[in-house]
Automatic annotation (TrEMBL):
<dbReference type="Pfam" id="PF06094">
    <property type="entry name" value="GGACT"/>
</dbReference>
<dbReference type="GO" id="GO:0061929">
    <property type="term" value="F:gamma-glutamylaminecyclotransferase activity"/>
</dbReference>
<dbReference type="InterPro" id="IPR009288">
    <property type="entry name" value="AIG2-like_dom"/>
</dbReference>
<feature type="active site" description="Proton acceptor">
    <location>
        <position position="82"/>
    </location>
</feature>
<dbReference type="InterPro" id="IPR013024">
    <property type="entry name" value="GGCT-like"/>
</dbReference>
<comment type="similarity">
    <text>Belongs to the gamma-glutamylcyclotransferase family.</text>
</comment>
<dbReference type="GO" id="GO:0005829">
    <property type="term" value="C:cytosol"/>
</dbReference>
<keyword id="KW-0456">Lyase</keyword>
<dbReference type="GO" id="GO:0016740">
    <property type="term" value="F:transferase activity"/>
</dbReference>
<dbReference type="InterPro" id="IPR036568">
    <property type="entry name" value="GGCT-like_sf"/>
</dbReference>
<feature type="domain" description="Gamma-glutamylcyclotransferase AIG2-like">
    <location>
        <begin position="4"/>
        <end position="122"/>
    </location>
</feature>
<dbReference type="GO" id="GO:0042219">
    <property type="term" value="P:modified amino acid catabolic process"/>
</dbReference>
<protein>
    <recommendedName>
        <fullName>Gamma-glutamylaminecyclotransferase</fullName>
        <ecNumber>4.3.2.8</ecNumber>
    </recommendedName>
</protein>
<dbReference type="InterPro" id="IPR039126">
    <property type="entry name" value="GGACT"/>
</dbReference>
<comment type="function">
    <text>Catalyzes the formation of 5-oxo-L-proline from L-gamma-glutamyl-L-epsilon-lysine.</text>
</comment>
<keyword id="KW-0808">Transferase</keyword>
Length: 156
């Protein structure tokens, strides 16, 4: 099992959460909520209003999201879904645990008690330079006050 931190449309209540609970794509178990230890720019960009965490550590905000434990099948699905490695790149990032529901071995408990976990995150270093000038968000909600509703793939 691997840990994945999601901050955009794959979170509970967001347009693509259905993929996280579709066991035909693999297993994803919600573990808790967290935020990035380092600051990053989270922007909503492109004609489909997609959330992107730009891989510019130290700039932006501590990004809020959810921590999942996923099996290899789900990790492969997420790589495909996220257009990895072209659109997003899957990298390990340090995530501060805000709220923990996960149950697991002593190593997991120790990591959660320490407050910081290493999780895979889909961020991007391959973005148009003008995206750096977009507004930065600390959390994502498709129907947030930004007014930039996400366009589902099946509606594009």
């Amino acid at each position: 099992m691997a840990r994945v931190f999601v901050y955009g449309t794959l979170k509970k209540g967001q347009p693509n959460y259905k993929h996280m609970i579709n066991t035909a794509k693999g297993l994803a178990k919600f573990q808790g909520r967290g935020r990035t230890v380092e600051k990053y720019p989270l922007v909503i960009a492109g004609k489909y209003n997609i959330p992107y965490m730009l891989n510019i550590p130290g700039t932006g905000h501590h990004i809020a999201g959810e921590i999942y434990s996923v099996d290899e099948q789900m990790l492969q699905f997420l790589d495909e879904f996220e257009g990895c490695p072209d659109m997003y790149q899957r990298t390990l990032m340090r995530i501060q645990v805000v709220e923990w529901e996960g149950k697991g071995g002593a190593g997991e408990a120790r990591a959660a008690a320490d407050g910081v976990l290493e999780c895979f995150v889909y961020s991007t270093a391959t973005y148009p330079p003008e995206w750096v000038g977009l507004p930065y968000h600390d959390s994502y909600d498709s129907s947030g006050k930004h007014g930039l509703s996400y366009v589902l793939r099946e509606s594009r």
